[in-house]
Amino acid sequence: MITRVRIDGMSCQHCVRAVFTALAGVDGIARADVGIGVAEVEHDGTVTVERLRDAVEVAGYVIASEDARARRQLPLV
Questions:
Q1: Which of 28, 58, 18, 27 is nearest to 39 (CA)?
Q2: Is 35 helix (H, G, I), strand (E, B) or coil?
C-alpha cells in the first residue's frame, strides 16, 4: 500500500533527511520517498496515518493532511 502525506514546516534538505530518518524507524514501512513538504510511504498495510504522524512529529514537523486515496487504502483500526 502507498500513503501520501503533506508535511508542514519543511523548507530544506535537512528537513527531508530528518523526516526520512524518522519514517525509517517505523515497522512496516518498506520505502519512503520524502521531498520538501511531502512524503510517499510504501508499507505493508499495518501502518496507520497516526503512526506516520507520530514519527513525523518526532522529527519536528506536522502532517497537514493525507490524500483521499491513502485514507481508503489504510485499514480501519
A1: 18
A2: strand
